[in-house]
Design goal:
CATH class of the largest domain: Alpha Beta
Strand content: 15-25%
Mean pLDDT: 93
Distance between the termini: 12 Å
CATH topology of the largest domain: Rossmann fold
CATH superfamily of the largest domain: P-loop containing nucleotide triphosphate hydrolases
Length: 552
C-alpha cells in the first residue's frame, strides 16, 4: 500500500482524547476539526524532559527517512514505557508539489491526518506569507506617499515571499507601469526561507514576537542609514496576522503519540528547526522529546545546536543519526549499472560520509550518538553489517530499524538504546563561541570543524555586506546560518563522500535582525527553489468525491 492508503486505513483518535491522555488541558485546545488543534498552553521552560535530536547523513534527493525514523522512535519509546512526544516541522508546499514530497513520514510511521498536514494544515504558512508581504507593501506605500523616511528604492533588502517553488520570481520588477509609483527590482524568497518564518520559530511569546518583527531590517536611506520595520510601525499589524500562527499545532502519529508540529524553515537555506514553543511544549508533557532537524547533520544539526539550542537554552541528551545503504552507496560513487561487488565497494567508500558525521557529533558537540540504519527491502544482510561495524568502530552504537513497515515496533531496539544514552551525562558544547570572535572566524569554524574545509573564501560582495552591516548592529555577537547544498559537505553538490581541504565560498551575507542571526550564502544556493522537469504536482489527482492520490 502507499503512504496515503496506509494513513486512510488507520483509525485515529479524536485529538482531544490524545490531549487528555497526556495531560493537556481541554480549555487550551483550539480545535480544527476532530484531528487537529492549536495549543494555547504556555510551556514550562524549566521542564526536564530528555531531548533527542534525529538527524542524518547527507541525503539523496529522495531523503533518507529522517522524519519517518523520528515518528517511529517516538512511538517505540511509548511502547517500551517511556512517555514520549514529538516536535516536528510543518511541511512546505514547495517540496510537496516539487520533488521531495511531503514531510509527514511514511508507511506505518506517519503523523496524521497526512493530507491536511501536507497541504494547508492550520494556515500557519499563509499567515507568515501574509505578514511578510504586508511589510513589503508598507515599504512601497511609504515610498509612494512622499517617502518620509527617505528610503532608497534600490536599497530595499527585505523581499516578498511565496510558499511555492517558482524560479521565475527570483528576479522581478515591481510598480512597472504604475502611475506615480517608483519601479524597482524585487525578488521573492520561498516562505520557508523568509525571516518571518525564522522569527516565529524562535519567538517565545507575543511580546517577543512583536519585538523581533520590529527589528527586521527592511531598507537603507539614500544616505545609507538603516530602516527597520519598527520605523514603519509595522510590527503590531504583522503580529495581529500571526497571533494564531504562533500557537503550536497538535496532531498524532498513527501509533497515537502526540506530535507538536509547528513552523518549517528549510535547513539548506534557513535554520532548519521547528519552533522553540513546540519543542518546549513537548518537553512540558513528556519525559522524552523527539525532534528533528532538516537534511544532513552538517546543516540541520549544526543549526539546531549552534542557533536554536543556544537561543532557547536547550541541552540535548542524545543524537540519532539516520543512515541508509542507498545514500552511502551514492557517496561512494555507485550508479544503477553497478554489479553487487561494485555496490559493496561503493558502500565501503561511502562510509566516509557516515564517519565524518559521527566524529562531528561526538568530538565537536560532545554528544552520544546512535546510528539508526533505516533498512530498505533490497538492503542485504552483508551491507547492513558493513554499516553497523563502521559505526561501532567510531564508538557509536548502530541499530537497524524498519519503521516504515512496522511502525514503532520496528524501532524498539533503537528506543532502548536512546534511553540508555539519554541517561548518561554529556559535555554538550558549540562549534564556536558567540562572543569575542568575528563573523569570519565563526564561518571558518563551521567550515573547518564540520565541513572538513581548509578555509573560507569571502567574496568582495559578502565583505561589502558585512562592512555595511557592522554599522547597523553588533554583528560579531550573532550566530551564523550557512545556506548551502544539502548533498555535500562542500558548497558543490557534486562533491560527494567526505571531501577535505576544499574551500567554502561565501558569495553574500544577509542580516536577520529579528531572528537574531546572519545568513551566509555559500556557492550558488538560492532562497527560492525551482520546480523539476516533472514535479510532483503533475502526477496528483483528485476525484469528484475529493479523494486525493499522488500526495506523499
Amino acid at each position: 500500500m502507499t503512504d496515503i492508503e496506509i494513513a486512510r486505513n488507520c483509525k485515529l483518535k479524536p485529538i482531544a482524547q490524545i490531549a487528555e491522555q497526556w495531560g493537556i488541558p481541554a480549555a487550551e485546545l483550539e480545535l480544527y476539526g476532530s484531528y487537529k488543534a492549536k495549543v494555547s498552553t504556555r510551556p514550562d521552560m524549566s521542564a526536564r524532559s530528555k531531548l533527542v535530536l534525529v538527524t542524518a547523513i547527507n541525503p539523496t534527493s529522495a531523503g533518507e527517512g529522517k522524519t519517518t525514523v523520528s515518528i517511529g522512535l517516538a512511538d517505540a519509546l511509548n511502547l517500551v514505557g517511556a512517555k514520549a512526544c514529538l516536535a516536528l516541522r510543518e511541511p512546505s508546499l514547495g517540496p510537496v508539489f516539487g520533488i521531495k514530497g511531503g514531510a509527514t513520514g511514511g508507511g506505518y510511521s506517519q503523523i496524521a491526518p497526512m493530507e491536511d498536514i501536507n497541504l494547508h494544515f492550520t494556515g500557519d504558512f499563509h499567515a507568515i506569507t501574509a505578514a511578510n508581504n504586508l511589510l513589503c507593501a508598507l515599504v512601497d506605500n511609504s515610498i509612494f506617499q512622499g517617502n518620509p523616511l527617505g528610503i532608497d528604492p534600490d536599497r530595499i533588502v527585505f523581499n516578498r515571499t511565496l510558499d511555492v517553488n517558482d524560479r521565475a520570481l527570483r528576479g522581478v520588477r515591481v510598480n512597472s507601469g504604475v502611475k506615480g509609483a517608483t519601479e524597482h527590482a524585487e525578488h521573492f524568497n520561498i516562505t520557508a526561507a523568509c525571516e518571518i518564518m525564522a522569527i516565529l520559530s524562535l519567538a517565545t511569546d507575543l511580546d517577543d514576537l512583536k519585538a523581533r518583527l520590529g527589528r527586521i531590517l527592511v531598507a537603507y536611506t539614500t544616505d545609507g542609514k538603516p530602516i527597520f520595520a519598527a520605523d514603519l510601525h509595522a510590527q503590531d499589524a504583522m503580529t495581529i496576522l500571526l497571533k494564531d500562527a504562533i500557537k503550536p499545532n497538535l496532531v498524532q502519529t498513527l501509533g497515537g503519540t502526540p506530535a507538536f508540529v509547528h513552523c518549517g524553515p528549510f535547513a539548506n537555506i534557513a535554520h532548519g528547526c521547528n519552533s522553540v514553543l513546540a519543542t518546549r511544549l513537548a518537553m512540558t508533557y513528556a519525559d522524552y522529546t523527539v525532534t528533528e532537524a532538516g537534511f544532513g547533520a552538517d546543516l540541520g544539526a549544526e543549526k539546531f545546536f549552534d542557533v536554536k539550542c543556544r537561543t532557547a537554552g536547550l541541552h540535548p541528551d542524545c543524537v540519532v543519526l539516520v543512515a541508509t545503504v542507498r545514500a552511502l552507496k551514492l557517496h561512494g560513487g555507485a550508479d544503477k549499472t553497478n554489479s553487487k561487488e561494485e555496490d559493496l565497494f561503493a558502500l565501503r567508500k561511502g562510509l566516509r560520509n557516515l564517519n565524518r558525521h559521527i566524529l562531528n557529533l561526538r568530538n565537536v558537540y560532545r554528544l552520544p550518538v546512535v546510528v539508526a540504519v533505516n533498512r530498505f527491502t533490497d538492503d542485504t544482510d552483508v551491507e547492513i553489517g558493513v554499516v553497523r561495524r563502521a559505526a561501532m568502530r567510531l564508538g557509536a552504537s548502530a541499530v537497524v530499524c524498519n519503521v516504515w513497515g512496522e511502525g514503532g515496533k520496528g524501532a524498539v531496539r533503537l528506543a532502548h538504546k536512546v534511553i540508555e544514552l539519554c541517561n548518561q551525562p554529556n559535555d554538550f558544547s558549540f562549534a564556536y563561541p558567540l562572543k569575542g570572535v568575528s563573523v569570519e572566524d565563526k564561518l571558518r569554524a563551521i567550515a573547518t570543524k564540520i565541513y572538513g574545509a581548509k578555509d573560507v573564501e569571502i567574496s568582495p560582495q559578502a565583505q561589502d555586506s558585512l562592512n555595511r552591516l557592522a554599522s547597523v548592529a553588533p554583528v560579531d555577537d550573532l550566530p551564523v546560518v550557512i545556506a548551502k547544498t544539502q548533498y555535500s559537505f562542500s558548497d558543490d553538490p557534486t562533491l560527494l563522500g567526505a571531501p577535505s581541504n576544499h574551500v567554502l565560498h561565501i558569495r553574500d551575507i544577509e542580516y536577520r535582525g529579528g531572528a537574531g542571526f546572519l545568513v551566509a550564502l555559500a556557492g550558488n544556493m538560492l532562497l527560492m527553489p525551482g520546480l523539476s522537469k516533472t514535479p510532483n504536482a503533475v502526477n496528483m489527482t483528485i476525484d469528484s468525491d475529493g479523494k486525493i492520490d499522488g500526495l506523499y
